[in-house]
Amino acid sequence: MSDILIVEDDRDIADLIAHYLERAGHQARIAPNGGDGLAAARDRTPDVIVLDLMLPGLDGLEICRALRADVRTSRVPIIMLTARAEESDRIAGLELGADDYVTKPFSPKELVARINAQVRRERRTSSVPPALLVFATLTIDIDRHVVRDAGREVHLAAKEFLLLQYLVEHQGRVLSRDRLLTDVWGYQYTGGTRTVDVHVRRLREKLPVLTDAIVTVKQFGYKLLDPAARDRDES
Question: Nearest-CA neighbor of 18 among 2, 33, 34?
C-alpha cells in the first residue's frame, strides 16, 4: 500500500481522487491548502504527492519549490493537477521539479495510472543493488541517489537523477525524446516532449561537465558523449 498525499482545496475533487486511489489499494491523505500540504509531507514523507497549482495561501509552485529544497521530500514524485493548461505553466512546474502535469478536467483512472507509474518507478529504483556510475568528473551513487562532481555533492530532483543515470548507462547512443519519456518517466507521456528538453537543460545548468557532453540530435533527441573520448578522437 502506497501513501499518496493529495493537496487540493476543492473537497469534491480531493474526495474523488482519494476514492479512486483507495479502490486501487493506496492510502490517501488530503490537505486542503498549501501550508497544510507542506506540513503533512514533512510530517510523514508520502510516496507520491498530487499537488493542485492554484491553492489558497501558498500556491502549488511555491509548495513544489519548498518540497524540492527539503532533503526529506526532495525526491518524492510530484504530480501537478491544475486547470492551467498553458505550455508556460507546464514548463514552470517541470522546471521547479514536478514529475508530471495533469490538467483539469481529468480522468481519475488516468490519474491513478500515472500515480501507479510513479510508484513503480520509485520501487524499481529503490530495489536495484548498490552501484556507482562514473562519467567524466561525475560519480553517481544509484543506491543513495547522490551525485558528486569532482567530489562536490550536487542536488538533483528525482527525474533529473533518473535521466542522468539513463544517459550515462546508454552513453554514445542516440536516444529519442519518446524513448527517454517511456524509459525514464515510465509511461507514454501525453503532455509533449518538451519535458525532456526542460530536464536536459537543468542537468546542463547544474552539472557544467554535461554542457557539451549531452549532444542535441536535431529534431530527434540526445546522446551523451564522454568528453575525454571525444578529445582523443579529435586529436
Answer: 2
157, 95: one domain: no
Out of 73, 102, 126, a domain closes at: 126
Alpha helices in 31-171 (DSSP H): 34-43, 60-69, 87-95, 108-127, 158-169
Return the minimum-mean-pLDDT range out of 7-16, 80-89, 102-111, 211-220: 80-89
Decide: helix, strand or coil at residue 138.
Answer: strand
The C-alpha cell that represents 42 in the structure block? 514533512
Candidates 37, 106, 43, 100; CA nearest to 72 is 43
Residues 223 and 161 in one domain: yes
The total domain count for the chain is: 2
**Domain around 64:** 3-126
Helix 194-206 with 87-95: angle, nearest 10 deg: 40
pLDDT in tens, 180-225: 888 887 755 555 678 899 999 999 999 999 999 999 998 889 999 9
Residues 103, 143, single domain; the answer is no
Whether the model pTM is above 0.90: no
Average the pLDDT over 80-95 and give the result. 77
> Distance between CA 40 and CA 201 in Å, rounded?
31
- Name the band, by pLDDT with cuts 50, 70 and 90, for residue 31: very high
CATH of the domain at 100: 3.40.50.2300
**Dihedral over alpha carbons 117, 119, 124, 126 (to 10 degrees):** 150
**Residue 9 carries which DSSP code?**
S
Same domain, 55 and 133: no
